Amino acid sequence: MKTIAFIPARYAATRFPGKLMQMLGDKTIIRHTYENTKATLLFDEVIVVTDSEVIFNEIIHNGGYAIMSKQPHESGSDRIAEAVADIDVDLVINVQGDEPFVKKELLENLLNAFKNDFSGKTQVASLMYETTDNDAIINPNHVKVVVDKNNNALYFSRSVIPFPRNKNLTPVYYKHIGIYAFRKNALMNFTKWEPSVLEETEKLEQLRYLENNVKIKMVLTNESPVSIDTREDLEVARKLI
Question: N or C: which end of the chain has fewer CB within 10 A?
Answer without folding.
Answer: N
